[in-house]
Specification:
- By secondary structure, this protein is an alpha+beta fold.
- It has 4 domains: about 140 residues, Up-down Bundle (Glutathione S-transferase Yfyf (Class Pi), Chain A, domain 2); about 70 residues, no CATH class; about 170 residues, Neurolysin, domain 3; about 180 residues, Neurolysin, domain 3, CATH 1.10.1370.40.
- Helix content is about 55%, strand content about 5%.
- It contains 26 helices and 9 strands.
- Strand 4 and strand 5 form a beta hairpin.
- Helix 1 packs parallel to helix 3 and helix 15 packs across helix 18.
Length: about 700
């Protein structure tokens, strides 16, 4: 090979991605070359496979890791740096990638070798982690259609192909529909009630849209459907007509025209049902739960009903109180959906003296990170240090950090991409894997995570001043990151979040959110960005008091979405007597207090179940919250102000939940931490639905 020929960065296959080199035009030739090489490696493995760890799992892992390294980069960039060029490359390579994944998942020789391992005399010599990996491989092969032949197999593979394409289309439609809307405000009357932080951000958005003259004081101001804009606008705008306009735009995203996701939803549900039937499951929900911690659909519905019945009456009372509150202040119309955030915010401010805008100056991102990292040290003995510049990044705002063990040794790294970029970055917050922990030739490969948020960006020379929900979100995602980064499992197939049942994966993330309401933690991270003054204790007490404000409504909303997800994937019959909207309206009678608008099409933007991993699994947030609330209760019982007890309990949490990852069943992991099975009581207490003992 000539020395002048450079390797395509998509083919490096290990280490940190060279984001400073990767271009969209490199993706198709790079991934095509990779798939050709991996196909050859797979054929070779199938002819030489032995039913042993070294003869099967290790070479198979090498194939899988090379694939996930390259394709993971593309998927990551689709989320954080979306562009027409990237989309075209992604769509061009998606089909051959799905074909290879099917080929890999349906390999008869590899499946037979795994089955032989399971029944061999060497089985008992494998570690618990190794056994879990083998058992998961057998299950996943069966759920990937390894037992299918002929036309049925071809149909199944076509379904997989089409579902992947539909998921991508769904996600792109939501991104495009979100960024297509903009409400331009030009007068003082139109921006009445809006806080200064939103005006500054809206002026910045207007500038980005071509209004170079825009300022926070003079406008124009651009309101978008991106969360840092949409949420505070509904909470603070005194223009009811504009709130209605923005709300209707939000709930009808991707529900009409070229970006209409309704046909995609219908087709997705049809295909998922067909796939379940092919695999001998009655419904897609049953197929989905075959991979989860919950034992059955009935068990999921039992939990949902327990939470629904516990929250419905509370939510009814909350709406009545909110209605009275608005009436007492001269509001004579019927409360509509676009009124609820506005009046709820006013009521919260009045009842608790708490205002998000009053809090923002105390939560500058750098200070919040310091407080979060201090907590990680207190609980888990790790030190986190900024090492910006040691890794190429995809945007100048991206940070890079090192996680160090007790002796100062590097044990993991993570990227942090904190700010909203509506033009190229999908909404929400998430974590993804860059590199999995594993042992390669007796060397431990350290894990690396992507941590992505969408909070308010720095404006007018000020740091990012976070609202309290953004602080909670950062803690949440960092919890996911900790499970990925603090694992001690040396087999990548069960390291960190890998091989953890999906309805248990939210345990560490939701656990970390609880610390946002812990006095010492909050006072550590909340300091005024200008004066350095810590958050006054009075404000902390108000945050604590307001924690469960409108809690019944919040729980019921999540229950409503979880029920709808299960119903669509378990009882709904595409093309039958009911439409998806009929199902939504039927369930709304028992899971909402204020019925949805007739044109409310939130399903068209429900990416969790139509473009994410939560299909027939949205209940997972509640299932895992039972675990996370009970886990946090262990710290409460130890004494939150007892540093020694907290460190001991934190070490036990690290050595079980964070360390063991997918090497053992989540119930086994939980019991090894807690000493018993979980109880729902801690969740109900934390949510304010049962009194504290």
């Amino acid at each position: 090979m000539s020395a002048t020929v450079q390797i395509n960065p998509m083919l490096i296959g290990q280490g940190l991605p060279p984001f400073d080199q990767i271009q969209p035009e490199q993706i198709v030739p790079g991934v095509e070359a990779l798939l050709a090489a991996l196909n050859a490696d797979l054929e070779q493995l199938e002819t030489t496979v032995e039913p042993t760890w070294s003869g099967l799992v290790e070479p198979l892992t090498q194939i899988e890791e090379r694939l996930t390294w390259s394709w993971g980069i593309v998927g990551h960039l689709m989320g954080v740096k979306n562009s027409p060029e990237l989309r075209a490359a992604y769509e061009a390579i998606q089909s051959p990638l799905v074909q290879f994944s099917n080929r890999l998942g349906q390999s008869q020789p590899l499946y037979a070798a795994f089955k032989e391992m399971r029944t061999s005399r060497q089985w008992d010599e494998l570690t618990a982690a190794q056994q879990r990996i083998v058992e998961a491989a057998i299950r996943d092969a069966e759920l990937s259609g390894v037992g299918l032949t002929g036309e049925v197999k071809a149909t199944f593979n076509q379904i997989q192909q089409e579902l992947a394409e539909l998921s991508t289309q769904f996600s792109n439609h939501v991104l495009d529909a979100t960024k297509a809307f903009g409400l331009q405000l030009t007068t003082a009357e139109e921006q009445e009630g809006l806080p200064q932080s939103l005006l500054a951000q809206a002026a910045q958005a207007a500038k980005a849209a071509g209004h170079d003259e825009a300022t926070a004081t003079q406008g124009p101001w651009l309101i978008t459907l991106d969360a840092p804009s949409y949420v505070p606008f509904l909470q603070h705008s005194r223009r009811r007509d504009l709130r209605e306009q923005v709300y209707r735009a939000f709930v009808t995203r991707a529900a009409a025209g070229e970006l209409d996701n309704q046909p995609i939803i219908e087709r997705t549900l049809v295909l998922r049902q067909q796939m379940a039937k092919i695999l001998d499951y009655d419904t897609y929900a049953e197929l989905s739960i075959a991979r989860k911690m919950a034992p059955s659909v009935a068990a999921v519905e039992q939990l949902m009903e327990e939470l629904r019945s516990a929250s419905y009456e509370t939510a009814t009372v909350e709406l009545a109180e909110l209605t009275d509150f608005a009436r007492d202040r001269g509001f004579e119309a019927e409360l509509k959906q676009w009124d609820l955030p506005f009046w709820a915010e006013l009521m919260r401010e009045e009842q608790y003296g708490l205002n998000d805008e009053e809090l923002r100056p105390y939560f500058p991102l750098p200070q919040v990170l310091d407080g979060l990292f201090t907590l990680a040290h207190r609980l888990f003995g790790v030190t986190i240090a900024a090492v910006d510049g040691e890794a190429p990044v995809w945007h100048p705002d991206v940070r890079y950090f090192q996680v160090q063990g007790e002796s100062g040794e590097a044990i993991a790294h993570f990227y942090l991409d904190p700010y909203s970029r509506p033009a190229e970055k999908r909404g929400g917050a998430w974590i993804d894997f860059c590199v999995n922990r594993g042992k390669v030739k007796d060397q431990i490969r350290l894990p690396v995570a992507y941590l992505v948020c969408n909070q308010s960006s720095p404006v007018d020379g000020k740091p990012s001043l976070m609202n309290f929900r953004e602080v909670e979100t950062l803690f949440h995602e960092f919890g996911h990151g900790l499970q990925h980064m603090l694992t001690t499992v040396d087999y990548s197939g069960a390291a960190g979040i890998n091989n953890v049942e999906w309805d248990a994966v939210e345990l560490p993330s939701q656990f970390m959110e609880n610390w946002c309401y812990h006095r010492e933690t909050l006072l550590q991270l909340a300091r005024h960005y200008e004066t350095g003054e810590p958050l006054p204790d009075e404000l902390f007490q108000k945050i604590l008091a307001a924690r469960n404000f409108m809690t019944g409504s919040a729980i019921l909303r999540q229950v409503s979405m979880g029920w709808l997800d299960i119903e669509l994937h378990h009882r709904y019959q595409p093309g039958g007597d009911e439409t998806i909207w009929d199902v939504r309206n039927r369930l709304a009678k028992t899971t909402t207090i204020l019925p949805p608008l007739p044109e409310d099409a939130f399903l068209c933007a429900f990416g969790h179940i139509f473009a994410g991993g939560y299909a027939a699994g949205y209940y997972s947030y509640f299932w895992a919250e039972v675990l996370s609330a009970d886990a946090f209760a262990a710290f409460e019982e130890a004494g939150l102000e007892n540093d020694t007890a907290i460190a001991e309990t934190g070490r036990r949490f690290r050595d079980t939940v964070l360390s063991l990852g997918g090497s053992r069943h989540p119930m086994e992991v939980f019991k090894s931490f807690r000493g018993r099975e979980p109880s729902t009581q801690a969740l109900l207490r934390h949510r304010g639905l049962v009194p504290a003992a």
